[in-house]
Every structure is written in structure tokens, then in C-alpha cells.
Design goal:
With 489 residues, this protein is of the alpha/beta class. It is 35% helix and 15% strand. Bound molecules: flavin-adenine dinucleotide and iron/sulfur cluster (SF4).
Length: 489
Amino acid sequence: MGQFMGFLNIERKNQKERSPLERTDDWNEYKEAMTEKEIGEQAARCMDCGTPYCQIGMIVNRGTSGCPIHNLIPEWNDLVYRGLWKEAYERLSKTNNFPEFTSKACPAPCEGSCTAGLVSDPVSIKSIERAIIDRAFEEGWVVPRPPLRRTGKKVAVVGSGPAGLACADQLNKIGHEVAVFERSDRPGGLLMYGIPSMKIEKDVVDRRVHLLEEEGVVFKTGVNVGRDVTAAELKNDFDAVVLCTGSGKRRELPIEGRDLKGIAPAMNYLTVSNRHLLYGEPLPPDLNARGKRVIVIGGGDTGEDCVATAIRQGCRSVVQFGKHGRLPDRRTAGNPWPEHPNVFSVDYAYEEAEELFGRDPREYYVETERFTGNEAGHVTGLTTGSFKKNRDGREQKKWDADLVLIAIGFRGAEDRLFDDFEIQRDPSGRVILADEHNYQTSREGIFAAGDARRGATLIVWAIEEGRKAAAAVDLYLDDKQSLLKSLFK
Ligand SMILES: Cc1cc2nc3c(=O)[nH]c(=O)nc-3n(C[C@H](O)[C@H](O)[C@H](O)COP(=O)(O)OP(=O)(O)OC[C@H]3O[C@@H](n4cnc5c(N)ncnc54)[C@H](O)[C@@H]3O)c2cc1C
Ligand code: SF4
């Protein structure tokens, strides 16, 4: 259980970050691992409190509390404290297929509900998770483990984001033959072409994909299911199909001037930036922030990643509009533990903008009303009002801009594929399941998981969905070694 009273006697430390001025000169990960000694001390802060809210993984008051994949956090904290790293890795890999992704980019809802956080600072769970998986790769403990036997059952997984990869991993491990169909030229979903390399470097994604390949998972990239392969063909060739195609429909901003050049959806911008870095493909002039005044519309994580990308491309200035207000510095009475703390923080991109331009780029309660352009049809600026205007009487404001990125969220699963499979979606665009517990859609043998089913969310939820869908598929295939049954042993 760590060190007696450790959480009171030892100060919490976070993973170190490279200095903003240094890291904005490159595209490498902005965080640095802690030393073994530091990690041992952080693990000593966990008291194995007996009420491990850190691992409950529940939605409480519309936010995520605890780890959605129910990582066995107090157990591996203690193993790390005692220097039993291999055992810690074994416990971690029992619940998490890809700790190398979550330990870099998860917002760590486990820490928001850590019991130590009630009276002190929460345990640095994410940093410890990272140290375990880094050590496991360094020591060569993460090796391909192909199944000892094959069941003869074939499953098609469509989409290779974290949900598809987790689902494929689980099904392959118990012996089903798994083919992953991916329309992009490279597996990984948003891990590869959405999330910037400052958060997850791309060789980390490739490394895991290669491990899965060595274990027997077959990746069929450049195949757009619904066009290159039909739903009927997949149903015919496979015993089950799992649709993990993400939440690719974007929210739009249909206001005056939207058609001007220099206004682009955030995902187009982030995708070409990632492809430019991976393959040296030229950046289209309208998606290159160099020397430009950039405005990002949308206050979420995607918007933040656009800010960090624009900074690295050498933008002249950057501003990010959010429709909500600034979060409070501390939990409010309406946001008690173990809810996820909705508090103000200065994340990596904002730290960088402050260092380079002398101010936090975030503007609050901003409503974009119309875009303006020049005779060449290129955006030159925009006009905003305030979502709070009726209360504080704020006036309209004009902003200059050469590049505007729209990052206002997603509207659910893309239609064509699901129309092809004749699967219904709810008004938010999420796939409707016939039974919430078995991940099966209204079509027999067709399952859905990840952002396509849940709506745009987090890597860790996508992994959880992929694992649960795999368990449900296994039960459907009526294999004797049922994953679902083993969950209830
Ligand atoms: C910019 C950005 C930053 C983010 N940052 C974070 C973060 O820091 N931390 C975090 O936890 N979460 C983050 N997220 C959210 C996270 O990336 C997603 O929740 C997660 O990737 C969803 O996984 P998924 O497998 O359901 O779908 P996706 O990752 O979207 O993968 C779906 C895959 O399906 C493929 N596909 C779609 N249609 C077809 C078809 N017809 N045929 C074949 N293939 C198809 C797509 O090409 C894609 O590869 C971020 C999201 C974005 C957009
Ligand atoms: S996956 Fe996320 S929520 Fe779970 S232990 Fe790791 S950082 Fe915490």
C-alpha cells in the first residue's frame, strides 16, 4: 500500500515537460518521463484506500469518474513502490491493451476521483502508468503473443482507431481470425492522423500495430468499406463484423462567408499536418499557418491541438474562441469529488502561446457571427458577438484573420457505411444498439463500438468499447473460451 501516510508526507509531482520555447521548435512529444526514483516516491503516495474510486469508470454528472477500463491502479502502484516492475506491467496489461497511448494522452479521470485528492493532491497515476509501460518496452517484456490455437471463426473489424485495435487484439488473443479494414493508408485512426505527434509520436502507434500483425491480426489498409467492399460481402465472408469507424461527421458553421478560402475544418488541417510530417507531403497554402493570424473556433481539445500545430508552423498570432466561460480555479460546490474536476488548467498549447505571444490564446463566451473576405475570395477576418451579450451587454467585435479553423465538434458516425448495413442512428448520429449490453446492432452479427457508438469521446473509452464489443462477439460466436463468461467468473 505504498508508504504509510505517503500521500501527506510526499508532494505530488507531474511528468516533466520540455520548455515551451524548446519544444515548439520541433514536433516531438512535449512530456518527459520521470526518473525511477521519482516514480517510486509517487507510487508511495497511494494508500490502497479500499475505496478505489480511481478505477470505477463511471459517468457521474455527465463527466467520467475513474478509469473506464478499470485499470487495477492501487495494485500496480504498490508493485512499483516495491520495485516489482514486471509484475506491475502484467497487472496493467490485464485491463489496458495500449497503455502507451493512454499514459501519454488520457485526461486521467482516475486522478480526478483518487481518494487522496479529497484531502491532498491525487496520486500521479498517469505518470506511473507511463513509467510501467516505458519500462516494459525497454526491458523487452512486450513481445508478440500469438494465440496457441485458432477457433476457425472469422471476424471483420472496420476501422483501426483505438476501438478497432482493442477489439481486434482481444478477439485475436482468444484465437479468432481477425481482419481489420481501414480506409486510410495507415492504421491507427485518430491516433495516427488526428492527434498531433506532440501528444503521441507516430512510431508509438506503428510499434503497436506491428505487434498486432506479428500476433496474427491482418490489416487491410486503403479499403473503404461500403465502397471498395460492400456490407453484403463482409457479411458473407465473415462470421461477425464490428464497426469501429469513429465519429467522423463534423459540426459545421453555416454562417455568412463560410465559403471563403482560408476557412477549414480542424480535422483537415490536423490531417494534412500529420501527413506532411510523416511523408513530406507539401502543405496546401490554405492549410499552412506560417506567418498568418490564426483563429481557432471551438474551445475543446481539437482546438487546442490546432493552436499547438499553428504555433509550430510559425503563425504570426493565434486566438481560440470558446462558447463557454473560463472554468473556476477550484472545484465548486456543484462539482464535488469523485466527479471529474471541472477546473481551469493551462494545458500544453496554452503554455506555449503564452510563452511566445505573451498571452493565453483563449477567449470565452464567443459566438462567431460572420466571416469577411477580400476580392480574391479569401478570408480577412470575422465578426463575433457574445453568448453572454444579454447579460453583460458586450458589443460585437471584429477580428483580423488569414486562417480560420473550425473545431466545434462532431455529429456522429458517417452515414454511408451505416446506410449500407441498414443500421439506425439516434438524433446525435450514434449507432443504436439492439441491446446496450451486447454491442450488437439491429442487424444480427453486426456490432458497433467506439466513437461510432458512443459519440466523440476519449481513447480510453474507445479501448473499453473495443474490449466489450470483442467479449460480446466472442459470446455470439459461442466459442467455449468466452471472454464475456470469464469476466463474470
Ligand atoms: C484532434 C483530436 C485530438 C484528440 N486528443 C485526444 C486526447 O488527447 N486524449 C484522448 O483520450 N482522446 C483524444 N481524442 C479523442 C480520441 O482520439 C477518440 O475518442 C478515439 O480515437 C476514438 O476511437 P475510435 O476507434 O472509435 O475511432 P477513430 O480513432 O476515429 O478511428 C476510426 C477509423 O475508422 C476508419 N473508417 C471510417 N469509415 C471507414 C470505412 N467506411 N471503411 C474503412 N475504415 C473506415 C477511419 O479512417 C479511422 O481510421 C482526440 C480527438 C481528436 C479529433
Ligand atoms: S487509462 Fe486514463 S483513466 Fe485509466 S489509469 Fe490510465 S490515465 Fe487513468
